[in-house]
Amino acid sequence: MHKNIILCGVGGQGTILASKLIAAAAMKRGLGVKTAETIGMAQRGGSVFSHVRLGEDLHSPMIAPGQADIIIAFEPAEALRHLPFLKEGGTVVASLSPVFPVSTLIGDSSYPLEEILQQLKNSIQNLTLIDSEAALRELGSPKVLNVLLLGAAVRTGELGLELEDIEAALHEKVPARFQELNDRALRYTEGKKQS
User: Fold this and answer.
1) What is the pLDDT of residue 36?
2) Cα–Cα distance measured from residue 133 to residue 151, given in angstroms and rounded to the nearest whole number
């Protein structure tokens, strides 16, 4: 099995932890893992992404354009920005909730959310959009977006991992006092119809 996974978002959303959970879960299953990440702008709310490759005979951690099996996007514009990496017939799991750049907040630019979402719907056959704002409100914490999206990604079948694999990695990497919340976030989309 080979899987090429891209996680993308904005600094502070938990993108890097999500990639570490995938890597830890895969290693526990005996899979080869290579990862690379860009975190330079994370402190300023800038773009953050991780490449995670699972399988044997991996020579580079970087995923070439057109080779990602799945993109897990914590933010809609980041999903669109990373689409060139998606292979034909690939899968995208994305949050519907935008993170507005400073330029939008001060009125220097716009954030055309509806256009971005329409472009995603027109471009991707296997698209799962998560109403993360509603989900996080119901879960009671904005800090589990990463685990919420991982749970939805597992359900696509494109990660090559099971919920139990991610759950075991969570229990190793996350303090015990947060485990029950994370377990609920991981399983939140079970049985729910996604758009």
Assistant:
1) 94
2) 16
